[in-house]
Write a structure and sequence with these properties.
- Keywords: Heme, Iron, Iron storage, Metal-binding.
- This is Bacterioferritin.
- Its cofactor is heme b.
- Pfam families: Ferritin.
- It comes from Komagataeibacter medellinensis (strain NBRC 3288 / BCRC 11682 / LMG 1693 / Kondo 51) (Gluconacetobacter medellinensis).
- Strands 1-2-3 form a three-stranded antiparallel β-sheet, with no helix packed on it.
- Strand 2 and strand 3 form a beta hairpin.
- The chain has two domains: 28 residues, no CATH class; 149 residues, Up-down Bundle (Ferritin), CATH 1.20.1260.
- Helix 1 runs antiparallel to helix 3, helix 3 packs antiparallel against helix 4 and helix 4 crosses helix 5.
- The termini are far apart.
- It is mainly alpha-helical and 188 residues long.
Amino acid sequence: MFFCLKNGKVYDIQSKQFSSMKKNSIMPIKDPKVIEFLNTQLTNELTAINQYYLHARTLRHWGVTLLGKKEYEESIEEMRHADWLIERILYLGGLPNVQRYNQILVGQDVEEILKCDLKLEEKAIGDLREGIAYCESVRDFVSRDLLLKILVNEEEHEDFLDRQFDLIKQVGIQRYIQLNSAPAPDQE
């Protein structure tokens, strides 16, 4: 593990020696477990991008265009999260694992799509909370703040999904689908 000092010297904790640094180079403080937590969340985000995109296109195909638009926007938001995580992992000297995915849960109807999305959000929120606690414990406040920023967005999406289930209970699934469908375009 290395610490970067202002005078251009690097102190290696293991060897207990100072060494010179190239000008303008940065040796970030690395913790493999922080990188592991960031990669776990990257896996969640990459899975969500694909799941939400598939759901967006499926809903649009079914004519449930307003909910499909929301799913598409969530997919793009997850892409932003993945971008932030990749940047942080690279900065810490880690390798972003963009080949690992969780199971993509595919809903067969509107209500099942919402249930699949909620399950994905619940997993991400649990992983984020665990990662935030660890980053706090090792005083990596930048990684902690990044995970916290993502957590806020994931909790907002979880709240949105919970409200959709409440709405379905109140008005029924058919009315809910009708509320989330746009009128067909004029063919004239």
